[in-house]
């Protein structure tokens, strides 16, 4: 069994947890393991009957390339002893062998007449303990790099003082325990914590950096009077109270975005290099903050759905996103993104476009403001204002087009009864 590609863009993943033990049988539909992708933790189900003969990539393994062997599967009645040898051969091809396998290969061997002598270990010049070079195994170097551990401070216990995996891991535990020890001198490294990048965080960083550098962003901001939305929301929520449902301001925003995209379909597009792809349906990506990073589950074809349906779907998707249980089809794609920070009392901000989409809408909080009164030329009145900022890719949506879309969006929110037309 090899690391599967859980999405078209996935190149590597991690093993969150095996749900079957070695030697345990499984049937179609049984969950074999959980795989951590750049977006979520996804269950991998068995497609047929079999036995999990040998696990190659253990729980917690990360950065496993798609197609790399992670386990040996067999059929009922097969000789499982052969799986051990197959797993050993497969592990030699991986970049991160298990701790047990590395320990065997790096422990000094005592010559015995009954065993065939092991071939001499070949050490690259970069691993020789000469000058500034450090004598360490590849996996030890990899772990040290990920955790920010200086190899020069790690004492090697392998052959000829070579630094092995256990040395690097032990160094971390020793430095941690020294924090609570009153007799140990203060370590400057205790003033900060190095947090290893998850696959999700690494992908977010790469995509947003690429978007900000390659997509020519521009920004348009409007003030929207939300009094009618707030009043209509109160009426709807009173009628939905007995059902345990409740509409949010964001549900109205999603609906207004979809309706505005119907009026200005050119904004519902993506820049694909040689072409601009214009979508016929409004699949709205909603930015959700999770412990692992930002993810954008999608409310599909939001223009055809009512506010109650949008609300229920958005809440369910947000919960699955925070639990890391989104399926690929629930966050891949999307034609337009909404990022709402109004619940944090943020009045105004700009957002980075979610490529290859052309637009993202940054929504702030609704706040009271004084404006001239239309009824009294010399007077003022208090209204509730929400600022919304559209970030657009100038290659596919120019300024005039962005302004047309933002005007349509503002019109729907200031006259929400038009949702019903």
From TrEMBL:
Residue ranges occupied by any Lipoyl-binding domain in the UniProt entry: 1-74
* InterPro entries membership: 2-oxoA_DH_lipoyl-BS, 2-oxoacid_DH_actylTfrase, Biotin_lipoyl, CAT-like_dom_sf, E2/Pdx1, E3-bd_dom_sf, LAT1, PSBD
* Taxonomic lineage of the native organism: Eukaryota, Fungi, Dikarya, Basidiomycota, Agaricomycotina
Q: Which cofactor does it need?
A: (R)-lipoate
* GO terms for cellular component: mitochondrion; pyruvate dehydrogenase complex
Q: Which family does it belong to?
A: Belongs to the 2-oxoacid dehydrogenase family.
Q: Where is the composition biased (Pro residues)?
A: 110-120
Q: Which PANTHER family match?
A: DIHYDROLIPOAMIDE ACETYL/SUCCINYL-TRANSFERASE-RELATED, DIHYDROLIPOYLLYSINE-RESIDUE ACETYLTRANSFERASE COMPONENT OF PYRUVATE DEHYDROGENASE COMPLEX, MITOCHONDRIAL-RELATED
- The EC category is transferase
The chemistry this enzyme catalyses reads:
N(6)-[(R)-dihydrolipoyl]-L-lysyl-[protein] + acetyl-CoA = N(6)-[(R)-S(8)-acetyldihydrolipoyl]-L-lysyl-[protein] + CoA
What CDD domains does this protein's entry cite? Answer: lipoyl_domain (cd06849)
Q: Does the keyword Acyltransferase apply?
A: yes
> Where is the sequence biased in composition, kind Low complexity?
173-184
Mind telling me what this protein is named? Acetyltransferase component of pyruvate dehydrogenase complex
**Cofactor remark:** Binds 1 lipoyl cofactor covalently.
Disordered: where is this region?
1-22, 88-131, 169-193
Per the UniProt entry, the Enzyme Commission number(s) are 2.3.1.12
Reported function: The pyruvate dehydrogenase complex catalyzes the overall conversion of pyruvate to acetyl-CoA and CO(2).
Q: Name one GO molecular function term.
A: dihydrolipoyllysine-residue acetyltransferase activity
Which segments constitute the Peripheral subunit-binding (PSBD) domain? 135-172
Enumerate the UniProt keywords alphabetically: Acyltransferase, Lipoyl, Transferase, Transit peptide
Task: State whether keyword ATP-binding applies.
Answer: no
């Amino acid at each position: 069994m090899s690391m599967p590609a859980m999405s078209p863009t996935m190149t590597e993943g991690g093993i969150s947890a095996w749900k079957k033990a070695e030697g345990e049988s499984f049937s179609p539909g049984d969950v074999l393991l959980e795989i951590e992708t750049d977006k979520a933790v996804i269950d991998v189900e068995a497609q047929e009957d079999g036995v999990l003969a040998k696990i190659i990539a253990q729980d917690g393994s990360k950065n496993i390339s798609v197609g790399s062997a992670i386990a040996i599967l067999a059929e009922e009645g097969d000789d499982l002893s052969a799986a051990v040898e197959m797993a050993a051969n497969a592990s030699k091809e991986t970049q991160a062998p298990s701790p047990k396998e590395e320990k065997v290969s790096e422990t000094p061997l005592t010559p015995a007449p009954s065993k065939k002598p092991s071939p001499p270990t070949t050490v690259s010049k970069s691993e020789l303990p000469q000058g500034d070079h450090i004598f360490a195994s590849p996996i030890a170097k990899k772990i040290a790099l990920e955790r920010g551990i200086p190899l020069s401070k790690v004492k090697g216990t392998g052959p000829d003082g070579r630094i092995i995996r256990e040395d690097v891991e032990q160094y971390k535990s020793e430095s941690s325990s020294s924090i609570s020890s009153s007799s140990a001198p203060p370590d400057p490294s205790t003033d900060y914590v190095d947090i290893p990048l998850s696959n999700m965080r690494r992908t977010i960083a790469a995509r947003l950096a690429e978007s900000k550098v390659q997509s020519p962003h521009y920004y348009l901001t409007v003030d929207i009077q939300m009094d009618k939305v707030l009043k209509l929301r109160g009426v709807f929520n009173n009628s939905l109270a007995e059902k345990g449902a409740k509409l949010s301001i964001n549900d109205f925003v999603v609906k207004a975005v979809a309706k505005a995209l119907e009026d200005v379909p050119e904004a519902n597009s993506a820049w694909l290099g040689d072409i601009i792809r214009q979508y016929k349906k409004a699949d709205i990506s909603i930015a959700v903050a999770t412990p692992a990073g930002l993810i954008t589950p999608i409310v599909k074809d939001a223009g055809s759905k009512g506010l109650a349906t949008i609300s229920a779907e958005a809440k369910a998707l947000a919960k699955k996103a925070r639990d890391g249980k989104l399926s690929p089809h629930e966050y891949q794609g999307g034609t337009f993104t909404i990022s709402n920070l109004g619940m944090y009392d943020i009045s105004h901000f700009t957002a980075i476009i979610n490529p290859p989409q052309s637009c993202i809408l940054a929504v702030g909080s609704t706040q009271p403001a004084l404006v001239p009164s239309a009824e009294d030329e010399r007077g003022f009145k208090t209204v509730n204002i929400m600022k919304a900022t559209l970030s657009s890719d100038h290659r596919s949506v120019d300024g005039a087009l962005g302004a047309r879309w933002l005007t349509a969006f503002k019109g729907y929110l200031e006259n929400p009864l038009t949702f019903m037309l």
